Automatic annotation (TrEMBL):
<dbReference type="GO" id="GO:0000155">
    <property type="term" value="F:phosphorelay sensor kinase activity"/>
</dbReference>
<dbReference type="Pfam" id="PF08447">
    <property type="entry name" value="PAS_3"/>
</dbReference>
<dbReference type="InterPro" id="IPR052162">
    <property type="entry name" value="Sensor_kinase/Photoreceptor"/>
</dbReference>
<feature type="domain" description="Response regulatory">
    <location>
        <begin position="6"/>
        <end position="122"/>
    </location>
</feature>
<feature type="domain" description="PAS">
    <location>
        <begin position="262"/>
        <end position="332"/>
    </location>
</feature>
<dbReference type="Pfam" id="PF13188">
    <property type="entry name" value="PAS_8"/>
</dbReference>
<dbReference type="InterPro" id="IPR000014">
    <property type="entry name" value="PAS"/>
</dbReference>
<keyword id="KW-0808">Transferase</keyword>
<protein>
    <recommendedName>
        <fullName>histidine kinase</fullName>
        <ecNumber>2.7.13.3</ecNumber>
    </recommendedName>
</protein>
<keyword id="KW-0175">Coiled coil</keyword>
<dbReference type="InterPro" id="IPR001610">
    <property type="entry name" value="PAC"/>
</dbReference>
<feature type="domain" description="PAS">
    <location>
        <begin position="388"/>
        <end position="458"/>
    </location>
</feature>
<dbReference type="InterPro" id="IPR001789">
    <property type="entry name" value="Sig_transdc_resp-reg_receiver"/>
</dbReference>
<dbReference type="InterPro" id="IPR000700">
    <property type="entry name" value="PAS-assoc_C"/>
</dbReference>
<dbReference type="Pfam" id="PF13426">
    <property type="entry name" value="PAS_9"/>
</dbReference>
<keyword id="KW-0597">Phosphoprotein</keyword>
<feature type="coiled-coil region">
    <location>
        <begin position="245"/>
        <end position="272"/>
    </location>
</feature>
Length: 592
Protein backbone atom coordinates (compact mmCIF):
# COMPACT_ATOMS: atom_id res chain seq x y z
CA UNK A 1 0.00 0.00 0.00
CA UNK A 2 1.31 3.44 -0.90
CA UNK A 3 2.41 5.56 2.08
CA UNK A 4 0.15 8.45 2.97
CA UNK A 5 2.19 11.68 2.84
CA UNK A 6 1.26 14.27 5.47
CA UNK A 7 1.67 17.77 4.01
CA UNK A 8 1.61 20.88 6.24
CA UNK A 9 0.71 24.05 4.25
CA UNK A 10 1.53 27.54 5.56
CA UNK A 11 -0.54 29.86 3.33
CA UNK A 12 -2.83 32.86 3.99
CA UNK A 13 -4.15 33.61 0.47
CA UNK A 14 -7.30 31.50 -0.15
CA UNK A 15 -6.91 31.69 -3.95
CA UNK A 16 -3.32 30.47 -3.88
CA UNK A 17 -4.31 27.81 -1.36
CA UNK A 18 -7.11 26.58 -3.62
CA UNK A 19 -4.78 26.30 -6.62
CA UNK A 20 -2.19 24.45 -4.52
CA UNK A 21 -4.73 22.00 -3.15
CA UNK A 22 -6.06 21.45 -6.68
CA UNK A 23 -2.60 20.55 -8.00
CA UNK A 24 -2.05 18.16 -5.10
CA UNK A 25 -5.44 16.55 -5.59
CA UNK A 26 -4.98 15.86 -9.28
CA UNK A 27 -1.51 14.40 -8.70
CA UNK A 28 -1.00 10.72 -7.97
CA UNK A 29 0.45 11.56 -4.57
CA UNK A 30 -1.40 9.81 -1.73
CA UNK A 31 -1.55 12.61 0.85
CA UNK A 32 -3.24 14.30 3.77
CA UNK A 33 -3.01 18.07 4.25
CA UNK A 34 -3.29 20.50 7.13
CA UNK A 35 -3.39 24.27 6.53
CA UNK A 36 -2.11 26.89 9.01
CA UNK A 37 -1.71 30.67 8.74
CA UNK A 38 -0.05 31.92 11.94
CA UNK A 39 3.13 31.20 13.85
CA UNK A 40 1.21 29.66 16.76
CA UNK A 41 -0.77 27.37 14.45
CA UNK A 42 2.42 26.38 12.63
CA UNK A 43 4.30 25.47 15.83
CA UNK A 44 1.33 23.49 17.14
CA UNK A 45 0.89 21.59 13.85
CA UNK A 46 4.58 20.58 13.78
CA UNK A 47 4.05 18.68 17.03
CA UNK A 48 0.51 17.39 16.58
CA UNK A 49 0.37 16.75 12.81
CA UNK A 50 4.00 15.53 12.40
CA UNK A 51 4.19 16.37 8.68
CA UNK A 52 6.36 14.51 6.17
CA UNK A 53 6.84 17.67 4.10
CA UNK A 54 6.12 21.39 4.59
CA UNK A 55 4.92 23.84 1.90
CA UNK A 56 5.27 27.47 2.98
CA UNK A 57 4.47 30.84 1.40
CA UNK A 58 7.45 33.17 1.63
CA UNK A 59 5.53 36.25 2.74
CA UNK A 60 2.60 36.27 5.18
CA UNK A 61 0.89 39.19 7.00
CA UNK A 62 2.33 38.38 10.47
CA UNK A 63 4.85 35.69 9.63
CA UNK A 64 7.30 34.71 6.87
CA UNK A 65 8.63 31.53 5.32
CA UNK A 66 12.22 32.01 6.52
CA UNK A 67 11.10 32.28 10.16
CA UNK A 68 8.95 29.18 9.68
CA UNK A 69 11.98 27.35 8.27
CA UNK A 70 14.08 28.21 11.35
CA UNK A 71 11.30 27.02 13.67
CA UNK A 72 11.01 23.79 11.68
CA UNK A 73 14.79 23.24 11.91
CA UNK A 74 14.70 23.41 15.70
CA UNK A 75 11.82 20.94 16.01
CA UNK A 76 12.12 18.49 13.07
CA UNK A 77 15.28 19.31 11.06
CA UNK A 78 15.02 16.26 8.76
CA UNK A 79 11.60 17.21 7.36
CA UNK A 80 11.75 18.68 3.81
CA UNK A 81 10.75 22.37 3.57
CA UNK A 82 9.62 23.83 0.21
CA UNK A 83 9.04 27.56 -0.34
CA UNK A 84 6.00 28.29 -2.57
CA UNK A 85 6.06 31.90 -3.73
CA UNK A 86 4.91 34.05 -6.61
CA UNK A 87 7.49 36.83 -6.19
CA UNK A 88 10.64 35.10 -5.02
CA UNK A 89 13.61 36.01 -7.20
CA UNK A 90 16.18 33.50 -8.41
CA UNK A 91 19.00 35.06 -6.39
CA UNK A 92 16.99 34.95 -3.16
CA UNK A 93 15.89 31.40 -3.93
CA UNK A 94 19.54 30.33 -4.24
CA UNK A 95 20.31 31.97 -0.88
CA UNK A 96 17.46 30.02 0.75
CA UNK A 97 18.74 26.75 -0.72
CA UNK A 98 22.17 27.50 0.73
CA UNK A 99 20.54 28.04 4.14
CA UNK A 100 19.07 24.55 3.96
CA UNK A 101 15.65 25.06 2.39
CA UNK A 102 14.92 21.92 0.40
CA UNK A 103 13.43 23.52 -2.74
CA UNK A 104 11.23 26.34 -4.01
CA UNK A 105 8.29 26.46 -6.41
CA UNK A 106 6.71 29.38 -8.25
CA UNK A 107 2.96 29.81 -7.88
CA UNK A 108 2.57 30.17 -11.64
CA UNK A 109 4.16 26.70 -12.08
CA UNK A 110 2.32 24.74 -9.43
CA UNK A 111 2.10 21.77 -11.79
CA UNK A 112 5.66 21.02 -10.62
CA UNK A 113 4.73 20.82 -6.94
CA UNK A 114 3.95 17.06 -6.81
CA UNK A 115 7.26 16.23 -8.51
CA UNK A 116 9.17 18.52 -6.13
CA UNK A 117 7.47 16.95 -3.11
CA UNK A 118 8.30 13.44 -4.34
CA UNK A 119 11.88 14.47 -5.01
CA UNK A 120 12.21 16.04 -1.55
CA UNK A 121 10.83 12.90 0.11
CA UNK A 122 13.19 10.70 -1.91
CA UNK A 123 16.18 12.84 -0.94
CA UNK A 124 15.20 12.67 2.75
CA UNK A 125 14.83 8.89 2.51
CA UNK A 126 18.18 8.62 0.74
CA UNK A 127 19.88 10.67 3.47
CA UNK A 128 18.41 8.40 6.12
CA UNK A 129 19.61 5.28 4.28
CA UNK A 130 23.06 6.79 3.89
CA UNK A 131 23.31 7.63 7.60
CA UNK A 132 22.13 4.13 8.53
CA UNK A 133 24.65 2.49 6.18
CA UNK A 134 27.49 4.66 7.52
CA UNK A 135 26.56 3.85 11.12
CA UNK A 136 26.49 0.11 10.41
CA UNK A 137 29.82 0.30 8.59
CA UNK A 138 31.38 2.19 11.50
CA UNK A 139 30.07 -0.31 14.05
CA UNK A 140 31.39 -3.24 11.99
CA UNK A 141 34.78 -1.55 11.65
CA UNK A 142 34.96 -1.09 15.43
CA UNK A 143 33.97 -4.71 15.99
CA UNK A 144 36.53 -5.99 13.51
CA UNK A 145 39.21 -3.77 15.04
CA UNK A 146 38.49 -5.15 18.52
CA UNK A 147 38.62 -8.71 17.21
CA UNK A 148 41.85 -7.99 15.34
CA UNK A 149 43.49 -6.54 18.46
CA UNK A 150 42.93 -9.84 20.30
CA UNK A 151 45.30 -11.55 17.87
CA UNK A 152 48.72 -12.61 19.15
CA UNK A 153 50.08 -12.11 15.60
CA UNK A 154 51.00 -8.74 14.12
CA UNK A 155 48.49 -7.77 11.39
CA UNK A 156 49.39 -4.79 9.23
CA UNK A 157 49.03 -3.12 5.85
CA UNK A 158 51.90 -1.69 3.76
CA UNK A 159 51.79 1.02 1.10
CA UNK A 160 53.69 1.00 -2.19
CA UNK A 161 56.82 2.36 -0.44
CA UNK A 162 56.78 -0.46 2.08
CA UNK A 163 55.63 1.83 4.93
CA UNK A 164 53.23 0.71 7.64
CA UNK A 165 49.71 2.10 7.06
CA UNK A 166 47.86 0.21 9.80
CA UNK A 167 49.22 -2.03 12.56
CA UNK A 168 47.43 -3.93 15.31
CA UNK A 169 48.29 -3.93 19.01
CA UNK A 170 50.37 -7.13 18.83
CA UNK A 171 53.29 -5.10 17.43
CA UNK A 172 54.05 -3.96 20.99
CA UNK A 173 54.63 -7.55 22.19
CA UNK A 174 56.37 -8.78 19.02
CA UNK A 175 58.63 -5.83 18.09
CA UNK A 176 58.41 -3.58 21.14
CA UNK A 177 56.92 -0.71 19.08
CA UNK A 178 53.38 0.56 19.55
CA UNK A 179 51.18 0.93 16.43
CA UNK A 180 51.56 4.73 16.51
CA UNK A 181 55.36 4.36 16.46
CA UNK A 182 55.29 2.08 13.40
CA UNK A 183 52.81 3.94 11.17
CA UNK A 184 54.76 5.70 8.41
CA UNK A 185 57.98 3.70 9.10
CA UNK A 186 59.47 1.54 6.32
CA UNK A 187 59.21 -2.09 7.36
CA UNK A 188 62.56 -2.92 5.77
CA UNK A 189 64.30 -0.46 8.14
CA UNK A 190 63.50 -2.82 11.05
CA UNK A 191 64.74 -5.94 9.27
CA UNK A 192 68.04 -7.59 10.23
CA UNK A 193 70.87 -6.16 8.17
CA UNK A 194 71.78 -9.57 6.75
CA UNK A 195 68.19 -10.15 5.57
CA UNK A 196 67.54 -6.75 3.94
CA UNK A 197 68.93 -7.48 0.48
CA UNK A 198 66.83 -10.62 0.09
CA UNK A 199 63.79 -8.88 1.60
CA UNK A 200 64.06 -5.98 -0.89
CA UNK A 201 64.21 -8.39 -3.86
CA UNK A 202 61.28 -10.43 -2.55
CA UNK A 203 59.39 -7.19 -1.84
CA UNK A 204 59.52 -6.29 -5.55
CA UNK A 205 58.02 -9.67 -6.47
CA UNK A 206 55.46 -9.21 -3.71
CA UNK A 207 54.26 -5.86 -5.10
CA UNK A 208 53.97 -7.46 -8.53
CA UNK A 209 51.42 -9.95 -7.22
CA UNK A 210 53.44 -12.83 -5.73
CA UNK A 211 51.90 -14.08 -2.47
CA UNK A 212 54.18 -14.65 0.52
CA UNK A 213 53.37 -17.86 2.41
CA UNK A 214 55.37 -18.70 5.57
CA UNK A 215 58.08 -16.27 4.47
CA UNK A 216 60.70 -16.09 7.24
CA UNK A 217 63.15 -13.33 8.10
CA UNK A 218 64.63 -11.61 11.15
CA UNK A 219 63.65 -8.28 12.63
CA UNK A 220 65.30 -6.18 15.35
CA UNK A 221 63.21 -5.68 18.49
CA UNK A 222 63.11 -2.21 20.06
CA UNK A 223 65.29 -3.62 22.86
CA UNK A 224 67.92 -4.74 20.31
CA UNK A 225 67.25 -8.46 20.38
CA UNK A 226 66.59 -10.47 17.20
CA UNK A 227 63.02 -11.56 16.48
CA UNK A 228 62.32 -14.30 13.93
CA UNK A 229 59.11 -13.66 12.00
CA UNK A 230 57.03 -15.81 9.66
CA UNK A 231 55.06 -13.70 7.16
CA UNK A 232 51.94 -14.42 5.14
CA UNK A 233 51.14 -11.57 2.79
CA UNK A 234 49.23 -10.66 -0.36
CA UNK A 235 49.37 -7.52 -2.51
CA UNK A 236 46.06 -6.04 -3.67
CA UNK A 237 46.76 -4.60 -7.11
CA UNK A 238 43.46 -2.72 -7.33
CA UNK A 239 44.02 -0.92 -4.01
CA UNK A 240 47.81 -0.73 -4.35
CA UNK A 241 48.27 -1.92 -0.78
CA UNK A 242 49.69 -5.03 0.88
CA UNK A 243 47.96 -7.06 3.60
CA UNK A 244 50.40 -8.88 5.93
CA UNK A 245 50.44 -11.13 8.99
CA UNK A 246 53.66 -11.66 10.97
CA UNK A 247 53.99 -14.40 13.58
CA UNK A 248 56.78 -14.42 16.18
CA UNK A 249 58.42 -17.83 15.77
CA UNK A 250 61.42 -17.15 18.05
CA UNK A 251 59.84 -19.36 20.69
CA UNK A 252 57.07 -21.30 18.99
CA UNK A 253 54.06 -21.91 21.21
CA UNK A 254 50.67 -23.43 20.66
CA UNK A 255 48.57 -20.59 19.25
CA UNK A 256 45.62 -19.70 21.53
CA UNK A 257 43.60 -18.11 18.77
CA UNK A 258 43.41 -18.23 14.99
CA UNK A 259 44.97 -15.45 12.92
CA UNK A 260 42.38 -12.95 11.90
CA UNK A 261 43.11 -10.83 8.93
CA UNK A 262 41.41 -7.58 8.43
CA UNK A 263 41.65 -5.62 5.28
CA UNK A 264 41.13 -1.90 4.95
CA UNK A 265 37.69 -1.02 3.73
CA UNK A 266 36.90 2.10 1.85
CA UNK A 267 33.59 3.84 2.54
CA UNK A 268 31.91 5.85 -0.20
CA UNK A 269 29.99 8.91 0.90
CA UNK A 270 27.15 10.36 -1.13
CA UNK A 271 27.41 14.14 -0.87
CA UNK A 272 25.60 16.97 -2.63
CA UNK A 273 23.74 14.57 -4.89
CA UNK A 274 21.97 16.43 -7.70
CA UNK A 275 18.97 14.84 -9.34
CA UNK A 276 18.69 14.68 -13.10
CA UNK A 277 15.48 15.59 -14.94
CA UNK A 278 14.30 14.55 -18.39
CA UNK A 279 10.99 14.75 -20.25
CA UNK A 280 10.27 11.76 -22.44
CA UNK A 281 7.68 12.04 -25.22
CA UNK A 282 5.30 9.21 -26.09
CA UNK A 283 7.54 8.14 -29.02
CA UNK A 284 10.56 7.84 -26.73
CA UNK A 285 12.26 11.05 -27.81
CA UNK A 286 13.78 13.40 -25.26
CA UNK A 287 11.85 16.69 -25.09
CA UNK A 288 14.08 18.26 -22.48
CA UNK A 289 17.07 17.23 -20.37
CA UNK A 290 18.64 19.15 -17.46
CA UNK A 291 22.39 19.80 -17.12
CA UNK A 292 22.49 17.47 -14.10
CA UNK A 293 21.02 14.68 -16.23
CA UNK A 294 23.73 15.19 -18.83
CA UNK A 295 26.40 15.09 -16.15
CA UNK A 296 25.02 11.97 -14.44
CA UNK A 297 24.74 10.04 -17.71
CA UNK A 298 28.11 11.23 -18.98
CA UNK A 299 26.68 12.88 -22.10
CA UNK A 300 27.93 15.92 -24.05
CA UNK A 301 26.63 19.31 -22.95
CA UNK A 302 24.80 19.81 -26.25
CA UNK A 303 22.82 16.54 -25.92
CA UNK A 304 19.65 18.14 -24.58
CA UNK A 305 17.39 16.14 -26.91
CA UNK A 306 17.35 12.94 -28.97
CA UNK A 307 16.26 9.39 -28.17
CA UNK A 308 16.60 7.69 -24.81
CA UNK A 309 19.60 5.39 -25.26
CA UNK A 310 18.03 2.10 -24.22
CA UNK A 311 21.04 0.37 -25.79
CA UNK A 312 23.26 1.81 -23.02
CA UNK A 313 21.29 0.05 -20.30
CA UNK A 314 23.00 -3.07 -18.93
CA UNK A 315 21.59 -6.16 -20.71
CA UNK A 316 20.61 -7.75 -17.41
CA UNK A 317 18.50 -4.69 -16.52
CA UNK A 318 16.68 -4.30 -19.85
CA UNK A 319 13.65 -6.41 -18.81
CA UNK A 320 13.22 -4.25 -15.72
CA UNK A 321 13.37 -1.01 -17.72
CA UNK A 322 11.01 -2.25 -20.46
CA UNK A 323 8.47 -3.49 -17.94
CA UNK A 324 8.55 -0.19 -16.01
CA UNK A 325 8.09 1.87 -19.20
CA UNK A 326 5.17 -0.28 -20.30
CA UNK A 327 3.40 0.08 -16.94
CA UNK A 328 3.92 3.86 -16.78
CA UNK A 329 2.90 4.52 -20.41
CA UNK A 330 -0.33 2.56 -19.98
CA UNK A 331 -1.37 4.19 -16.72
CA UNK A 332 -1.93 7.97 -16.54
CA UNK A 333 -0.45 9.56 -13.42
CA UNK A 334 1.43 6.34 -12.68
CA UNK A 335 4.65 6.78 -10.69
CA UNK A 336 7.22 4.00 -10.68
CA UNK A 337 10.77 3.72 -9.34
CA UNK A 338 13.36 1.53 -11.02
CA UNK A 339 17.08 0.89 -10.50
CA UNK A 340 19.38 -0.10 -13.34
CA UNK A 341 22.94 0.17 -14.66
CA UNK A 342 23.81 2.67 -17.37
CA UNK A 343 26.99 2.48 -19.45
CA UNK A 344 29.23 5.56 -19.44
CA UNK A 345 31.32 6.71 -22.45
CA UNK A 346 34.42 5.13 -20.86
CA UNK A 347 32.67 1.74 -20.73
CA UNK A 348 32.01 1.57 -17.02
CA UNK A 349 28.49 1.26 -15.60
CA UNK A 350 26.74 3.57 -13.17
CA UNK A 351 23.83 2.57 -11.00
CA UNK A 352 20.90 4.90 -11.72
CA UNK A 353 17.66 5.23 -9.75
CA UNK A 354 14.85 6.67 -11.88
CA UNK A 355 11.35 7.79 -10.94
CA UNK A 356 8.99 7.64 -13.94
CA UNK A 357 5.86 9.78 -13.73
CA UNK A 358 3.29 9.64 -16.54
CA UNK A 359 2.25 13.22 -17.37
CA UNK A 360 1.42 12.60 -21.02
CA UNK A 361 -2.18 13.63 -20.41
CA UNK A 362 -1.15 16.93 -18.79
CA UNK A 363 -1.05 19.63 -21.50
CA UNK A 364 1.59 21.67 -19.70
CA UNK A 365 3.95 18.68 -19.64
CA UNK A 366 2.79 16.15 -22.27
CA UNK A 367 5.63 13.79 -21.39
CA UNK A 368 6.79 11.10 -19.05
CA UNK A 369 8.82 12.86 -16.36
CA UNK A 370 12.07 11.10 -15.47
CA UNK A 371 13.73 12.09 -12.19
CA UNK A 372 16.94 10.17 -11.66
CA UNK A 373 20.10 10.21 -9.65
CA UNK A 374 23.40 8.37 -9.46
CA UNK A 375 23.18 5.80 -6.65
CA UNK A 376 26.47 4.03 -7.46
CA UNK A 377 28.07 5.20 -4.21
CA UNK A 378 25.13 3.97 -2.18
CA UNK A 379 25.29 0.57 -3.89
CA UNK A 380 29.03 0.34 -3.22
CA UNK A 381 28.39 1.18 0.44
CA UNK A 382 25.80 -1.59 0.67
CA UNK A 383 28.17 -4.09 -0.96
CA UNK A 384 30.97 -3.00 1.42
CA UNK A 385 28.64 -3.62 4.35
CA UNK A 386 27.81 -7.11 3.03
CA UNK A 387 31.52 -7.90 2.63
CA UNK A 388 32.18 -6.60 6.13
CA UNK A 389 29.44 -8.84 7.55
CA UNK A 390 30.90 -11.86 5.76
CA UNK A 391 34.45 -11.14 6.92
CA UNK A 392 33.29 -10.82 10.51
CA UNK A 393 31.49 -14.17 10.29
CA UNK A 394 34.54 -15.84 8.72
CA UNK A 395 36.93 -14.50 11.39
CA UNK A 396 34.54 -15.67 14.11
CA UNK A 397 33.64 -19.11 12.76
CA UNK A 398 37.08 -20.15 11.45
CA UNK A 399 38.91 -19.51 14.72
CA UNK A 400 40.29 -22.76 16.24
CA UNK A 401 39.74 -21.29 19.72
CA UNK A 402 36.21 -21.55 21.23
CA UNK A 403 34.53 -18.14 20.96
CA UNK A 404 31.10 -16.81 21.78
CA UNK A 405 29.03 -13.66 22.26
CA UNK A 406 26.87 -13.28 25.36
CA UNK A 407 24.45 -10.67 26.67
CA UNK A 408 25.96 -8.96 29.75
CA UNK A 409 22.47 -8.39 31.15
CA UNK A 410 21.06 -11.93 30.93
CA UNK A 411 24.31 -13.94 30.45
CA UNK A 412 22.53 -15.72 27.58
CA UNK A 413 24.60 -16.97 24.63
CA UNK A 414 23.94 -14.94 21.48
CA UNK A 415 26.32 -16.72 19.10
CA UNK A 416 28.99 -19.45 19.25
CA UNK A 417 31.63 -20.57 16.76
CA UNK A 418 32.27 -24.09 15.50
CA UNK A 419 35.26 -24.58 17.83
CA UNK A 420 33.05 -23.98 20.89
CA UNK A 421 30.40 -26.41 19.63
CA UNK A 422 33.02 -29.11 19.02
CA UNK A 423 34.90 -28.60 22.31
CA UNK A 424 31.90 -28.37 24.65
CA UNK A 425 29.74 -30.92 22.74
CA UNK A 426 26.65 -28.67 22.82
CA UNK A 427 24.82 -28.07 19.54
CA UNK A 428 24.34 -24.47 18.40
CA UNK A 429 20.64 -24.63 19.35
CA UNK A 430 21.52 -25.94 22.82
CA UNK A 431 24.10 -23.18 23.35
CA UNK A 432 21.58 -20.48 22.37
CA UNK A 433 19.03 -21.84 24.85
CA UNK A 434 21.33 -21.68 27.93
CA UNK A 435 23.39 -19.09 29.83
CA UNK A 436 26.94 -18.86 31.16
CA UNK A 437 25.69 -20.27 34.48
CA UNK A 438 24.91 -23.59 32.77
CA UNK A 439 28.56 -24.21 31.83
CA UNK A 440 29.95 -23.25 35.25
CA UNK A 441 30.29 -25.69 38.18
CA UNK A 442 27.86 -24.75 40.97
CA UNK A 443 30.67 -23.78 43.31
CA UNK A 444 31.94 -21.30 40.66
CA UNK A 445 28.63 -19.38 40.39
CA UNK A 446 29.46 -16.84 43.17
CA UNK A 447 32.70 -16.01 41.33
CA UNK A 448 30.75 -15.57 38.07
CA UNK A 449 28.29 -13.21 39.76
CA UNK A 450 31.15 -11.16 41.23
CA UNK A 451 32.86 -10.86 37.85
CA UNK A 452 29.56 -9.92 36.20
CA UNK A 453 28.89 -7.25 38.80
CA UNK A 454 32.40 -5.75 38.60
CA UNK A 455 32.74 -5.70 34.80
CA UNK A 456 29.22 -4.84 33.60
CA UNK A 457 29.13 -1.41 32.01
CA UNK A 458 32.89 -0.80 32.40
CA UNK A 459 33.75 -1.49 28.76
CA UNK A 460 37.10 -2.94 29.85
CA UNK A 461 39.01 -5.95 28.50
CA UNK A 462 38.91 -8.80 31.02
CA UNK A 463 40.99 -11.99 31.52
CA UNK A 464 40.81 -14.72 34.16
CA UNK A 465 41.34 -18.43 34.78
CA UNK A 466 38.20 -20.35 35.74
CA UNK A 467 36.49 -23.73 35.32
CA UNK A 468 33.80 -24.80 32.85
CA UNK A 469 31.65 -27.91 32.59
CA UNK A 470 31.18 -29.66 29.24
CA UNK A 471 27.87 -31.23 28.26
CA UNK A 472 29.29 -34.61 29.33
CA UNK A 473 29.90 -33.28 32.85
CA UNK A 474 33.68 -33.11 32.43
CA UNK A 475 35.15 -30.10 34.26
CA UNK A 476 37.93 -28.24 32.45
CA UNK A 477 40.18 -25.32 33.34
CA UNK A 478 39.94 -22.43 30.84
CA UNK A 479 41.78 -19.17 30.23
CA UNK A 480 39.06 -16.56 29.52
CA UNK A 481 39.68 -13.36 27.52
CA UNK A 482 36.79 -11.06 26.67
CA UNK A 483 36.09 -7.62 25.30
CA UNK A 484 33.00 -5.43 25.14
CA UNK A 485 31.10 -4.87 21.88
CA UNK A 486 28.04 -2.80 21.05
CA UNK A 487 25.44 -4.84 19.19
CA UNK A 488 22.52 -2.69 18.03
CA UNK A 489 22.69 -0.59 21.19
CA UNK A 490 23.04 -3.60 23.50
CA UNK A 491 26.19 -4.34 25.51
CA UNK A 492 27.60 -7.78 24.70
CA UNK A 493 30.95 -9.42 25.32
CA UNK A 494 33.11 -11.37 22.89
CA UNK A 495 34.83 -14.27 24.70
CA UNK A 496 37.82 -16.47 23.80
CA UNK A 497 38.00 -19.62 25.97
CA UNK A 498 41.27 -21.58 25.84
CA UNK A 499 41.31 -25.02 27.51
CA UNK A 500 44.42 -25.12 29.77
CA UNK A 501 43.48 -28.26 31.74
CA UNK A 502 46.48 -30.28 30.49
CA UNK A 503 48.83 -27.42 31.27
CA UNK A 504 47.48 -27.23 34.86
CA UNK A 505 47.85 -31.01 35.30
CA UNK A 506 51.49 -30.84 34.14
CA UNK A 507 52.23 -28.02 36.59
CA UNK A 508 50.63 -29.99 39.47
CA UNK A 509 52.68 -33.09 38.56
CA UNK A 510 55.89 -31.05 38.60
CA UNK A 511 55.00 -29.55 42.00
CA UNK A 512 54.39 -33.05 43.45
CA UNK A 513 57.74 -34.18 42.03
CA UNK A 514 59.52 -31.27 43.68
CA UNK A 515 57.92 -32.16 47.06
CA UNK A 516 59.21 -35.75 46.80
CA UNK A 517 62.69 -34.54 45.88
CA UNK A 518 62.74 -32.25 48.91
CA UNK A 519 61.76 -35.19 51.15
CA UNK A 520 64.60 -37.32 49.71
CA UNK A 521 67.08 -34.49 50.19
CA UNK A 522 65.99 -34.06 53.83
CA UNK A 523 66.29 -37.80 54.48
CA UNK A 524 69.77 -37.88 52.95
CA UNK A 525 70.92 -34.88 54.95
CA UNK A 526 69.24 -35.68 58.34
CA UNK A 527 67.82 -39.21 58.71
CA UNK A 528 70.83 -41.11 57.25
CA UNK A 529 73.28 -39.14 59.44
CA UNK A 530 72.04 -40.63 62.80
CA UNK A 531 72.61 -44.38 62.11
CA UNK A 532 75.78 -43.58 60.18
CA UNK A 533 77.15 -41.65 63.14
CA UNK A 534 76.34 -44.56 65.48
CA UNK A 535 78.12 -47.02 63.14
CA UNK A 536 81.20 -44.83 63.08
CA UNK A 537 81.13 -44.58 66.89
CA UNK A 538 80.79 -48.36 67.32
CA UNK A 539 83.70 -48.96 64.95
CA UNK A 540 85.85 -46.61 67.04
CA UNK A 541 84.67 -48.40 70.19
CA UNK A 542 85.78 -51.77 68.76
CA UNK A 543 89.16 -50.29 68.10
CA UNK A 544 89.75 -48.98 71.63
CA UNK A 545 87.61 -51.34 73.82
CA UNK A 546 89.30 -54.22 75.79
CA UNK A 547 89.06 -57.66 74.29
CA UNK A 548 86.15 -59.60 75.64
CA UNK A 549 83.59 -61.89 74.13
CA UNK A 550 80.58 -60.39 75.92
CA UNK A 551 81.64 -56.84 75.18
CA UNK A 552 82.28 -57.59 71.51
CA UNK A 553 78.95 -59.38 71.20
CA UNK A 554 77.10 -56.33 72.52
CA UNK A 555 78.95 -53.98 70.14
CA UNK A 556 78.24 -56.30 67.21
CA UNK A 557 74.57 -56.27 68.19
CA UNK A 558 74.55 -52.48 68.10
CA UNK A 559 76.37 -52.52 64.75
CA UNK A 560 73.85 -54.92 63.27
CA UNK A 561 70.90 -52.83 64.53
CA UNK A 562 72.33 -49.60 63.08
CA UNK A 563 73.12 -51.34 59.79
CA UNK A 564 69.53 -52.61 59.51
CA UNK A 565 68.22 -49.10 60.27
CA UNK A 566 70.51 -47.60 57.64
CA UNK A 567 69.47 -50.26 55.11
CA UNK A 568 65.77 -49.51 55.73
CA UNK A 569 66.36 -45.77 55.26
CA UNK A 570 68.20 -46.40 51.98
CA UNK A 571 65.34 -48.64 50.78
CA UNK A 572 62.85 -45.85 51.66
CA UNK A 573 64.93 -43.37 49.65
CA UNK A 574 64.99 -45.76 46.66
CA UNK A 575 61.19 -46.18 46.84
CA UNK A 576 60.64 -42.41 46.89
CA UNK A 577 63.08 -41.99 43.98
CA UNK A 578 61.11 -44.56 41.98
CA UNK A 579 57.88 -42.64 42.72
CA UNK A 580 59.49 -39.38 41.51
CA UNK A 581 60.60 -41.11 38.30
CA UNK A 582 57.07 -42.44 37.75
CA UNK A 583 55.52 -38.98 38.27
CA UNK A 584 58.09 -37.46 35.91
CA UNK A 585 57.15 -39.90 33.15
CA UNK A 586 53.45 -39.12 33.67
CA UNK A 587 54.12 -35.37 33.51
CA UNK A 588 55.96 -35.54 30.18
CA UNK A 589 53.69 -38.12 28.54
CA UNK A 590 50.93 -36.41 26.44
CA UNK A 591 47.39 -37.46 27.34
CA UNK A 592 45.45 -39.25 24.68
Amino acid sequence: METNVKILILEHDPNDLELLLYELKKSSLNHTTEVVQTKQEFEKALVSFQPNVILSDYSLPSFDGLSAFHIKQSIMPATPFIIVSGTLGEERAVDLIKLGVTDFALKDKLYQIATKIQRALNEAEDREKKETAELQLRLREEQLQKIMNLSLDMICTLDENGCFVTVNAASTDILGYSPSELIGVRAISLAHEEDRETAIADGILFRNGKDLINYENRYIHKSGRIVHLSWSARWNLSENIGYCIARDITNIKQAEEKIRQSEKRFRTLIQNSEEGLALLAADGSIVERSPAAIRILGLHSNETSGKFRIDLVHPEDLPTINNACQIVNNNPNAVLTVEYRFRMPDGRFKWIETHLHNQLHEPAVAAVVLNFRDITERKLAELALERSEQKYRDLFNLSPTPMWLFDTETLRFLDVNEAAIKHYNYSREEFLSITLKDIRPKEELPQLETIQRNTKGTGEFFQTITRHTKKSGEVIVVDIKNSVLDLDGREVRLVLATDVSERVKHIQAIEEQNTKLREIAWMQSHVVRAPLARLMGLVNLLDIAPTGEAKNSQILHYLQSSAHELDEIIRDIVRKAEQVQCHTQLAITPSE
